[in-house]
């Protein structure tokens, strides 16, 4: 038997229940992973509330790290005893142990510990594709990155600095502003105190930024378009405040032929080759110490309700993990 988090219906944190289930042997192409740490991500909230639908009853969680205990027929990517990590489907990472498609698993470098691995896979691979593929950034570019003191945000601050990109971050408190600055953000705006669009225009001398990375959604979308220079790209990659309202394409023309994209990690990691290339890039910057993964909240698996409550109440900073 193994302990997992189950939801029978969508709703608040109370719908998550810790239950015992029987874990069968790994099927063909699968590996059984004994998890040492589990990543908590805002996308888990979207699945729990039903904003992103999934079949019920179901599990939650899309990221973990641990040791391979058994492999099914035909598995070539990992072997028993390997230290591994993953980010992605199938949903169900909130568990002591689980069977995963081996094609999703990556063997960890010796110097990356389980806590770091569980915290960095989903958020780190996201920053990797956002900065290298969605908009291939180059030294000298200036970008706006919302929620700069969050899990994805702190990684983005450091990675932008590494690329020679000027990152303007937004945050919800002065403490978060200080944290984002320490992690490499060049300018930080507390959007609860200041109008971020006006400040971005001031900081860029009226020019606007090359790209906006907006994971807030509803509350910031239109203001973010106003921060872009002509031909700039709006990267709408999340909806922490709710889904973006429908808008007219003329909003893009009126602001100087803007581009808009709504990327998802899964689409960018759809092949093993893409996953391995992105992971090599992520493991490289983490192993070298150029990007530090700041695990600032740790919770027991049974305490997942508190973890979600704090994440949704904007009380967390950096990355959060569950310990089985
Ligand atoms: P964070 O740690 O960044 O937490 C979310 C943050 O969003 C909060 O701390 C808060 O920061 C800010 N926020 C603003 N408005 C709200 C609101 N109404 N309710 C709650 N939070 C709000 O989470 P993650 O690092 O896990 O994820 C960041 C975002 O990136 C999420 O939207 C997530 O869905 C998205 N994402 C998208 C991916 C993709 O491929 N498309 C992949 C990975 C993540 P503050 O107080 O500073 O405003």
UniProtKB/TrEMBL annotation:
Gene3D superfamilies: Medium-chain alcohol dehydrogenases, catalytic domain, NAD(P)-binding Rossmann-like Domain. GO terms for molecular function: quinone reductase (NADPH) activity. Its EC number is 1.6.5.5. SUPFAM superfamilies: GroES-like (SSF50129), NAD(P)-binding Rossmann-fold domains (SSF51735). Residues 11-322 form the Enoyl reductase (ER) domain. CDD domains: QOR2. Pfam families: ADH_N (PF08240), ADH_zinc_N (PF00107). Coiled coil: none annotated. InterPro entries: ADH-like_C (IPR013149), ADH-like_N (IPR013154), ER (IPR020843), GroES-like_sf (IPR011032), NAD(P)-bd_dom_sf (IPR036291), QOR-like (IPR047618), Quin_OxRdtase/zeta-crystal_CS (IPR002364). Keywords: NADP, Oxidoreductase. This is NADPH:quinone reductase.
């Amino acid at each position: 038997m193994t302990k997992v988090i189950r939801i029978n219906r969508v709703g608040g944190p109370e719908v998550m229940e810790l239950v015992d289930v029987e874990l069968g042997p790994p099927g063909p192409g699968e590996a059984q992973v004994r998890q040492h740490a589990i990543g908590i991500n805002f996308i888990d909230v979207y699945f729990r509330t039903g904003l992103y639908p999934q079949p019920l009853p179901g599990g939650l969680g899309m990221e973990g790290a641990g040791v391979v205990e058994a492999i099914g027929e035909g598995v070539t990517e990992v072997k028993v005893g390997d230290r591994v990590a993953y980010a992605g489907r199938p949903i169900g990472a909130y568990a002591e142990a689980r069977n995963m498609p081996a094609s999703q698993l990556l063997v960890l470098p010796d110097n990356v510990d389980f806590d770091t691995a569980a915290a960095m896979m989903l958020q780190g691979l996201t920053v990797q594709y956002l900065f290298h593929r969605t908009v291939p950034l180059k030294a000298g570019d200036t970008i706006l990155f919302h929620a700069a003191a969050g899990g994805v945000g702190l990684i983005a601050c450091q990675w932008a600095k590494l690329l020679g990109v000027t990152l303007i971050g937004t945050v919800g408190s002065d403490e978060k502003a200080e944290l984002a600055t320490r992690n490499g953000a060049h300018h930080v705006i507390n959007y609860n105190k200041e109008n971020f669009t006006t400040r971005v225009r001031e900081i860029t001398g009226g020019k606007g930024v090359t790209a906006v990375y907006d994971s807030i959604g509803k509350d910031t979308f239109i203001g973010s378009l106003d921060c872009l220079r002509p031909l700039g790209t709006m990267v709408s990659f999340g909806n922490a405040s709710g889904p973006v309202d429908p808008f007219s394409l003329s909003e893009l023309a009126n602001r100087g032929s803007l581009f808009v994209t709504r990327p998802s990690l899964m689409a960018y990691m759809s092949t093993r080759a893409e996953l391995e290339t992105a992971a090599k890039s992520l493991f490289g910057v983490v192993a070298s110490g150029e990007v530090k993964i700041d695990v600032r909240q740790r919770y027991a698996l049974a305490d997942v309700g508190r973890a979600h409550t704090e994440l949704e109440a904007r009380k967390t900073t950096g990355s959060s993990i569950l310990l089985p």
